[in-house]
Amino acid sequence: MDLGITGRKAIICASSKGLGKACAMTLAGDGVHVFINGRNAAILEKTAQEIREATGSEVTTVACDVTTPEGRAKILAACPDPDILINNAGGPPTGNFRDWDRDTWIAALDSNMLTPIELIKSVVDGMIERKFGRIVNITSGAVKAPINVLGLSNGARSGLTGFCAGVARTTVKDNVTINGLLPGPFETDRIAEVIAGEAKAKGISEEDARIYRMATNPAGRFGRPEEFGAACGWLCSANAGFVTGQNILIDGGNYPGVL
């Protein structure tokens, strides 16, 4: 599919692996100059080389922790005028809400709510001025169907979703859209962490928890990162300018509701 965004620039946070990497690969495949980010410089450079070899597109690496002010400043210095922003960060730890103190909550909010908001604030006015912008927040299926052991994620990501629902309606007239992509279970490091948390909570083995998770999903499997990347690419496309303020669930049909 020709996304109509060849020559655009995109910041993709937390993109050295997993869903962020899949998004970067899709965008680079359509001729977008991608600025990828991760904390581990060696892993990040390996990913960059994979993307370059697969797509022939320009890839710039920015090794930093985007959840810190210094990290955000570094990535924005590398790409101060992105056409596309993909907000992404590792999810907070699983557990029981009774064990979380205020500092734990603040850390979750910083990573999964306040960091995306700060990045949106930094780039959205430039997008409005240029009359093109695509902002995609990678959140979680737990925003729509909360998971007990993911209380920190449920809270922080729901806060981001509520904030963006309002802002998205103010920018779309200038061809700047803001949407959320809500992944269900995908074959990433995060699903391994979630399964470990569920296994501990239920007193079963991690293998049994994994088998149960896949068996209860209508698709009978976990998602492939490239499937997620393709959905992200469409939301960033030139023809997606009439889609904003939406939260698109990609979970193999696991959520049983109609809305």
What tags apply to this protein structure?
259 residues, 47% helix, 7-stranded parallel β-sheet, alpha/beta
Outline the structure in words:
- There is one protein chain.
- By secondary structure, the chain is of the alpha/beta class.
- It is built from eight helices and seven strands; from the N terminus they run E-H-E-H-E-H-E-H-E-H-E-H-H-H-E.
- The protein has a seven-stranded parallel sheet with strand order 3-2-1-4-5-6-7, sandwiched between helices.
- The longest helix has 29 residues, at 102-130.
- The two termini are 28 Å apart.
In short:
With 259 residues, this protein is α/β, with parallel strands linked by helices.
Q: In which order are the strands of the major sheet placed?
A: 3-2-1-4-5-6-7
* Gap between N and C termini: 28 Å
Q: Output the radius of gyration.
A: 18 Å
Globally, the shape reads globular
Unreliable stretches, pLDDT < 50, 5 or more residues? none
> How many β-strands, per DSSP?
7
Mean pLDDT: 95
Order of helices and strands: EHEHEHEHEHEHHHE
User: What's the helical proportion of residues?
Assistant: 40-55%
Query: Main β-sheet: number of strands, strand sense, barrel status?
Result: 7 strands, parallel
The share of residues in extended strands comes to 5-15%
Count of separate DSSP helical elements: 8
Structural class: alpha/beta
